[in-house]
Amino acid sequence: MRGATPNQIARHFTRDGTTAVQPLLESLATLDYATRAEAGRFLS
Questions:
Q1: Domain of residue 21, residue span
Q2: Could you tell me the CA-to-CA distances from 6 to 25, 27 in Å, in that order?
Q3: How many domains would you assign to the chain?
Q4: 41 near 3, Cβ under 8 Å?
Q5: Which H or E run contains 15?
Q6: What is the pLDDT of residues 1-44, one digit of tens each?
Q7: SS3 for 31?
Q8: Can you give the pTM of this predicted structure?
Q9: Residues sharing a CB contact under 8 Å with residue 23, sequence separation 6 or more, in sequence order
């Protein structure tokens, strides 16, 4: 799995960048719907 940074994911959904997506990814990771990986990346 490659994973993606919050900024890479944000480009697919919104122009807000990491400020809008980062908290969502953190919540998904807390709920075990995503996994925190190295270098600020997330896996689903």
A1: 6-43
A2: 7, 13
A3: 1
A4: yes
A5: none
A6: 578 888 887 777 656 556 777 888 899 999 999 999 988 888 88
A7: coil
A8: 0.59
A9: none
